[in-house]
Amino acid sequence: MFNYLKRRCERVVSFSEKGMQMKLKFQYLALTAATMLLASCGGGGSEEKAAADSAAKPAETTAAAAAPAAAGAASAAAPTADSTDTLDGAKLASVTPDAAHGKQIFMQCKTCHAVEAGKNMIGPSLAGIIGRAAGTVTGFNYSAANKNSGITWSEEKLFQYLEKPMRVVPGTKMAFAGLPKAQDRADVIAYLKAPN
Asked: What 3-state class would DSSP assign to 152?
């Protein structure tokens, strides 16, 4: 898509003035920056892309191939509200958190979240998240899945959620693939506890 846009921009530039050249270069740069920003927040999930690609193709699965797929779906079911089991088996207590590193990791979250109370953005404010019930920040329009999850954000539950948010709250509006490294998750939680 970028190559198409670039070729189109170059063709238009050859027929225009220098002012138009600058404008098109700026538009191309802005489009590239916006795409990179969305990709960093959304994770660019190759699993989701593969699922979308296979859903777009006609279903030609045999009964033998459908059985393993059903078994995989059952094992990927959302954990209960009080479960804190992670996909990687890590426990928050087994990691020594580093709030300073958590602040660096949180930079990718700042596109959508603030740590200041009452400052909702694309996502809700994360001020005071530990101990808060999911879907309760005033003034933020949560998905029904989040509001009805029954989750109270303990440090351990947040550790699980940050690994793969869409696994823990299927149907969440949060378009973030997650933090696969246990250390990164622990560090972000340490930062959220004391963001100053």
From this structure: strand
- Cβ contacts of residue 176 below 8 Å, gap of 6+? 41, 42, 43, 109, 112, 165
Superfamily the domain 87-193 falls into: Cytochrome c-like domain (1.10.760.10)
Better pLDDT: 50 or 38: 38
Residue 123 φ/ψ region, left for φ over 0, alpha for ψ in the -120 to 50 degree band, beta for the rest: beta
| DSSP 8-state secondary structure symbol assigned to residue 63 | H
Spell out the domain ranges in the chain.
Answer: 2-42, 87-193
The dihedral built from the CA positions of residue 177, 86, 125 and 96, taken in this order, carries a sign that is negative
User: 115-123: long-range contacts (C-beta < 8 A, 24 or more apart)?
Assistant: 115/192, 115/195, 123/174
Question: Mean pLDDT, to the nearest integer, of 118-136?
Answer: 96
Q: For residue 19, with 0-12 CB atoms within 10 Å meaning exposed, 13-18 middle and 19 or more buried, which class applies?
A: exposed
Q: Which of 115, 153, 155 is nearest to 136 (CA)?
A: 153
pTM for the complete prediction? 0.63
In whole angstroms, how far apart are CA 169 and each of 24, 66, 85, 150, 179? 41, 25, 14, 10, 15
